[in-house]
Amino acid sequence: MFLADLAIQSVIAIAVHLFFIAIAFYALQSVRLEVVFKKGHVFQVQVMMILLSLVLGSIAGGFFVELMNWSSQLQYLF
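^ that's the sequence the OP posted. Answer follows.
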């Protein structure tokens, strides 16, 4: 039973991280990063968008997964 719970938590964590990475990518599309980069460097702007999406999505997803873990451990308080 413990292994099944661990597997479910892992699947949820992966799904949450992917969801937040997609949300971060969607949100970053409204930011004009091409202003910061030199003209004609489209590929570098796209790579930066992907990397920023991964970083922001991982941070937000990690926070959400930790919050879920902490809230599930509250039952041991009482």
